[in-house]
Design goal:
The protein is mainly α. The protein has helices spanning about 5-40, 45-75, 85-115, 125-140, 180-185, 200-210, 245-265, 270, 275-285, 300-320, 330-345, 350-355, and strands at about 170, 215.
Length: about 350
């Protein structure tokens, strides 16, 4: 009976291979149907496109995908030195996502040149391309985790994701330092006792009180941390965190902006115009972020350069030309993230921010 690791490996490889071939076959079949209708119901054109898709999938699987997966699993060749990016993600984007986007652009061009509007590929084909793209991203993220039992390294207590109190330094108060000074100044218990209520009596009571401490650092009330919080009672299971389930949520949130950009390309007013070319080009550039490992510091810069800034400029142009084809929420999100990146990455390094604590 195969071990659990081998079963998990086989499962992941089958799922990733399915994510590679299914979008291509679906897109090419729809494109073949489009060519069939444009060419006057020519069966030869239809089967030529289908045969080309089968030949493409077979060749890239044998010549590129299988060798890359073998070297990745066995850690052979240059793959052994790769730590900051994911070769499998790069291979998937080049072999699957890029051809699918190219076929979508070609289908728009074929219909525009033929003076027909038959299919804008706005539902199943595009949804499958994006879904399997997220699918591969999730598999690459969850691959180091266990599939059964409790979560492992992703739930480390030391994975701090927000501002927390890390250092508290006790500082003694003035009253705790007065007793040694009293001995040095000759103030003893033999001195006349002060009257009740006098300042000397009150000072003596404070000096004899136990030392008190205060903290120079302040903990944030709403600080976030991945350290598990313990709760008792029946609903305690609702308070437990699992990094494996959070991977699914993070992956879909990671791709929502790209999904919206591709959705705009499916609108007839955009799809049958020249604007469909930059839409799919920018969408593909944003998918290149998947190549970078999730916790790589370069991911923030890549998000600004490949997604947020170009998306903001292009969405403003789309709204100016076609009206509100995309919700205003998305360009506002792009400009906010871009400004935050510029401020925290560049402006805070200026001399005025480093030497003057304004905020």
């Amino acid at each position: 009976m195969p071990s659990g690791k081998k079963v998990k490996l086989i499962l992941y490889e089958v799922l990733q291979f399915a994510a590679l071939i299914v979008p291509i076959f679906v897109i090419m079949e729809r494109f073949a149907s489009l060519i069939y209708n444009v060419k006057g119901r020519d069966q030869t054109a239809y089967w030529l496109v289908v045969a080309a898709s089968i030949a493409y999938v077979t060749s890239v699987t044998l010549l590129v995908w299988a060798p890359v997966r073998y070297m990745t699993i066995k850690q052979r060749g240059f793959i052994r030195e790769v730590k900051q990016w994911r070769p499998t993600a790069l291979a998937y984007l080049i072999l699957c996502t890029l051809p699918c986007f190219a076929i979508l652009i070609a289908s728009s061009k074929v219909q525009v040149d033929g003076g027909q509007k038959l299919d804008s590929f706005s539902e199943l084909p595009v949804s499958l391309v994006l879904f399997f793209l997220i699918w591969v991203d999730i598999i690459e993220r969850i691959r180091p985790c266990k599939l059964m039992g409790k979560s492992d390294s992703l739930d480390s207590d030391f994975d701090i994701s927000g501002p927390v109190l890390t250092h508290m330094e006790p500082v003694t108060t003035v009253s705790s330092q007065m007793n040694p000074e009293e001995g040095q100044n000759g103030v003893t218990q033999g001195q006349p006792e002060a009257k009740n209520g006098s300042a000397s009596s009150r000072f003596h009571d404070v000096a004899n009180s136990p030392p008190r401490t205060r903290f120079t650092s302040t903990a944030y009330l709403y600080s976030s941390t991945s350290r598990p919080l313990l709760y008792s009672g029946r609903p305690s299971i609702l308070w437990k965190r699992d990094g494996r389930s959070e991977i699914f949520v993070d992956s879909f949130l990671f791709w929502f902006d790209t999904v919206e950009m591709v959705r705009v390309a499916g609108l007839p007013s955009v799809f049958y115009s020249g604007w469909v070319f930059p839409v799919y080009i920018l969408a593909f550039l944003s998918t290149l972020r998947m190549i970078i490992t999730p916790h790589n510091p370069l991911l923030s810069s890549a998000g600004f350069a490949l997604q947020d800034f170009p998306f903001f400029v292009f969405r403003v142009a789309l709204i100016a030309v076609f009206g509100f084809v995309t919700p205003v929420l998305y360009p506002l999100k792009n400009v906010l993230v871009s400004l935050a990146f510029i401020y925290f990455t560049f402006l805070t390094r200026l001399k005025i921010f480093r030497h003057h604590n304004l905020f």
